[in-house]
Amino acid sequence: MTRRIRPRVLVTATLLCAVLATGCAGHAGTSGTAQPPTGSSPSATTTPAPSSSELARLTHLVDTAESAANAADSDAAANG
User: Which of 17, 36, 64, 72 is most solvent-facing, going by the fewest CB within 10 Å?
Assistant: First the structure.
């Protein structure tokens, strides 16, 4: 049985991946050329915690993507 992925689900999943990748990139004004920490500690730097509005936005995006995925699964099951 083959499953067709709706373009909307694909776009939602792609956007979710982009948001998560961007959120994990560490955009605190660094140019991306930071040197790895040295010494015995596993991490000499810490990243700031996301604000509550950022968490709410990411939670909303994840919920939307999960809802779209569930709708796609239901549609696929209904179409057999």
Answer: 36
Q: What kind and span of H or E run contains 49?
A: none
- Give the tens place of pLDDT for each residue, 58-75: 999 999 999 999 989 888
Both tokens assigned to 14: 């792609």
* d(C-alpha 79, C-alpha 2), whole Å: 11
pLDDT in tens, 2-22: 566 677 777 787 877 777 777
Helices (H), the chain: 7-23, 52-79
CA distance 12 to 69: 9
* Spatial CB neighbours of 50, under 8 Å, sequence gap ≥ 6: 23, 58
User: Rounded distance, CA 79 to CA 39, Å?
Assistant: 58
Most distant CA atoms of the chain, gap in Å: 58
